[in-house]
Design brief:
- This protein is of the alpha/beta class and 138 residues long.
- Helices cover 52% and strands 22% of the residues.
- It contains six helices and five strands.
- It has a five-stranded parallel sheet, sandwiched between helices.
- Helix 2 crosses helix 3 (53-71) and helix 4 (88-98) runs parallel beside helix 6.
- It is globular, with a radius of gyration of 15 Å.
- The two termini are 22 Å apart.
């Protein structure tokens, strides 16, 4: 049974749908959520040109603050994590182990057939390598 679910979010519509779905799952199990965002290198380069790591962390915190607002009033136990840098999929897989999660719910970007063939998505890598059940929300 899913008692502690990791929900990686990035501020996209798919990640918000994944968060809502995870909320429904933990209501049935009286479980908890671990909501995390990972500041990726590609985004970091753009933000660093503007104001350095401080602004970059602020953007990550804004995503987590928005998640906190979504969860407000839902009476769900939740931990919020901000990961800086590194490979996003690796950060997700490591966090599952460190936070003792027994499931992952994440959004799919919906890569097309050709783009999905040419490069692996984060959701695909997590799905293939996770040691716990993974739910991908479209």
């Amino acid at each position: 049974m899913l008692r502690r679910i990791l929900v990686p979010i990035d501020g996209t519509e798919c990640s918000w749908r994944a968060l809502e779905y995870a909320c429904e799952l933990v209501r049935f199990t009286s479980g908890s959520l671990v909501v995390m965002t990972v500041n990726s290198g590609r985004q970091k380069e753009t933000v660093l040109e503007v104001a350095g790591d401080v602004l970059f962390a602020q953007i990550g915190n804004e995503v987590l603050d928005a998640a906190n607002a979504v969860l407000a009033g839902k009476n769900i136990d939740c931990t919020y994590l901000l990961e800086n840098g590194g490979n996003i999929a690796d950060n997700i897989l490591r966090t599952v182990e460190e936070e003792h999660c027994d499931g992952i719910v994440l959004g799919s970007r919906g890569l097309g057939i050709l783009e999905g063939f040419l490069r692996s998505s984060v959701s695909q890598i997590v799905l293939e390598n996770a040691s716990v059940p993974v739910t991908i929300v479209k």
